[in-house]
Amino acid sequence: MIEFTDYEKKLALKKYKRKFIRNFRGFPLPKDMILDSLTLAWYIRAAYRLDDFFAVITEGVQRIGKTSLSSQASAEAFGEWEVYEVKKYGVNLPAVGCTKPNYDKVKEHMVFLPREFLNVVTRLETGKKQPVLIWDDAGFWLYALDWYEPFVKAVNKYIQLAGRQFSCIIFTTPSQHLISSKVLQAMPDFCLCRITKIGFDTPRRKLRQAKFYQRWDYPDGTKGGVYLYWVDRFDAMLPDEFYRWYKPISDGYLEQGKKLLKREVRRLDRRAARESKPDEVMEQAYKLAGDPDKLKEIDEILNQFL
């Protein structure tokens, strides 16, 4: 076995930390160790231990891996962690990471429908805080243009108290702007995660990069922006067993979208039918009257009622 000097280990750790490690909301990564799991998973566990709270908005184009990242990080946060050695920069370094992710717990803490959200929130006992809740495709039900809906208003009020029940809430959406600004304002320090591809996908591997940004602004609102907190790299391929559970649920999302679309089309059809009735009445009157003088008189009478 190769023995490395203390200087070599110190140099490798310095390179690693300069590239990957950032302190986030007082949740520092392990000292003199490498984190061999998703950084998001570590922060969820840290927030749970410290009774803290933070929210994550995970955005990216459709099918990029937003749910994959959220599920993997949550499974690692729920899972078993150990200390072991890994090779980085040519040196064996002590590392801490998840050795047994718990996807069964993720199934209990992932929601899409409003009813599912309510069931999870009410099922969990008050006073027993949970590490994380995932709201998949949250922009569908918390749509920005539906800010006036009673459900969106109720969620806004609940989010202001959610830190008493969860250490982290993850929303997935193609864009943060799809979620009602009132809901986002209830999480003023939310962390924005933007996912992009790394290279080309293969049938067995889909590498992704997730950059996490933190918002900032002056108290008077005159200036603001974002800065990069950390970067996670992951494979968007989910375990087969979990994917078999998630796939029919994901297809159900599409069915909900179809139902909503059909309902709106029927509403438009009814409105178009109502608007076409006055024209049909006039056509029938013209056929029955025929005389131009009578047509004028009929027009005046109809205008009083249409």
Structural class: alpha/beta
**Number of discrete helical segments:** 10
CATH architecture of the largest domain: 3-Layer(aba) Sandwich
CATH topology of the largest domain: Rossmann fold
Q: Largest sheet, if any?
A: 7 strands, mixed
Percent of residues in beta strands: 15-25%
Q: Tell me the name of the CATH class of the largest domain.
A: Alpha Beta
Q: How are helices and strands ordered from N to C? A: HEHEHEEHEHEHHEHEEEHH
Q: Low-confidence runs (pLDDT<50, min 5 residues)?
A: none
- Strand segment count: 10
Count of all domains: 2
- Radius of gyration, in angstroms, nearest whole number: 27 Å
Strand numbers in spatial order across the main sheet:
5-6-7-2-8-9-10
Share of helical residues: 40-55%
Q: What general form does the structure show? A: elongated
Mean pLDDT: 84
Terminal CA distance reads 93 Å
